[in-house]
Specification:
The chain is mainly alpha-helical. The chain contains 5 helices and 3 strands; from the N terminus they run H-H-H-E-H-H-E-E. The protein starts with a helix and ends in a 12-residue tail after the last strand.
Amino acid sequence: MSILRAALEARRLQASDPAWAMLRARNAPVAIAILEKQLGGDVWRVPAPVLFERTEDDLEELRSHSFELPQTAQQYCAEWRSAGILIRRAAEDAREETLELSQVRSTGDHLGR
């Protein structure tokens, strides 16, 4: 691959790929850690209220170690949805919505893993 082609492809990915959006996000290390913990294993789709509750627990732990995280879990999840990192879907068997990482490979891997 030529250097020009590689640079153009990287630019395209930077503008459109959810993994790049994650890296551009405010508090990217926090987002990566929380989303990997909550959605990076075998369970990659969870009801939104469950993700909010678990994320709030993670935020509290991080705050107790001097991370400045002024928003609620629901606000961070909304921010991650707006950035294209999370996808909101209607649950198939319940009234509540689910959230999942936006880039799920056919093998079940997330964000390039």
